[in-house]
Amino acid sequence: MNNTQNAITVGVGDLKITQAPNVLKTLLGSCIGIVLHDPVNKIGGLLHIMLPKKSGNDLKITKYADTGLPYFIYHMVTHAGASRRALYAKLFGGAKMFEANSLINIGETNEIEARRILKEEGIRIVASKTGGTKGYNILFDTDTGEVTCHIFGEAIVIY
Amino acid sequence: MHITQDRMKVIEIMSRLSIDRASRALSKILRTGAKITLSNVYLADLSETTEKMNNDLREMTGVMVDFKGNIGCKLLFMLPVNGAFILTDLFLRQPAGTTKENNEFTESVIQELGNILASHISNALVSDFDATLVPEPPHVHNDYAGVMFSNLVMEQGMMNDKLLLMETKFEISKNELECYLFLVPEMTSLIKLLDNIGVNK
Asked: What are phi and psi of A90, to 5 degrees?
């Protein structure tokens, strides 16, 4: 990965789609980061979801798996020019942070919902690293599709 | 969510008073000048703020406190890992440089500091503004700065795309310590409280 200096940062509940040679990056706690990549057209996106299902009146649909993920797939194909058949997904995050807080199982629920929707949409998950109690720093190279994952206090692993 | 200028002014005064009280308590407990000043109170966009913070990959020690009562609120006090060693030495009246690694003492000290900050902030709000604010037990965590910040704003972010953020500057005399104290109140209940004390515009 040689473009980390100019990596595009994705905030909580946000979605960014770009193409090679750009790199997308984010930090994840209990949130789930979903990467979609089209290796033929070298287009990639990163969705940072907070919750499995939308329930409130807030406007940002990319915070939720059930609204954000279909929106992500639609934008990858319709606006960014990715081939739906070529798309694959990678999943990261979903840690149990600050053990006793009320969000204790949110990471796991987010992951279950993301997997369910991807299956429904017919998009295969080729790699994932989820769970634990520490934060994830991930960098997604839209050229190669590689995700460099650095969990706090652990060695860097490429997926 | 919109907060009028008048309301924002009152929120700023409330924050300043409570943070001043926490600052005095901290100076007393550390027996050195600890100065916390309010640097900014603002309505932040969830994604934009976390996008900025997600570039912060420093390894931090943080303590998070949840408040229950008629205003829901969250507090995060975090500092670089080596800063936690300095605070541990100050708190335990040890010569500087005694603490060299994270251990149960460091964790207890940071937890206790979180407790002190939270209690004094809630005391100020309870006595001056008729709020009920009960701090829950503090939780200590080591992680990337950006991850801890995201965790702080998660709950508010679930209900709203905007969040009310109170940022402070934190100085401890004779020590170059970069500490961060953030307060994120639950907005609906805070506005109810403002209504109750007559700030209804």
From this structure: -135, 145
Q: Assess if CATH 3.30.950.10 describes domain A4-158.
A: no
Contact B161 A60 (CB under 8 A): yes
pLDDT per residue as tens digits for the range A46-71:
999 998 988 776 678 999 999 999 99
CB contact under 8 A, B144 and A56: no
CA B55, B59, B62, B64 torsion-angle sign: positive
Domain count, chain B: 1
Nearest CA in chain A to B58: A152
- What was the ipTM of the complex prediction? 0.84
Determine the structural domain holding residue B65 and report its residue range: 5-196
Which residue's structure tokens are 């860097």?
Answer: A156
Start-to-end Cα distance in chain B: 14
- Per the domain annotation, does B201 fall within a domain? no
Q: What does pTM read for this prediction?
A: 0.86
A149 flagged as catalytic: no
State the CATH number of the domain containing residue B132: 3.40.1550.10
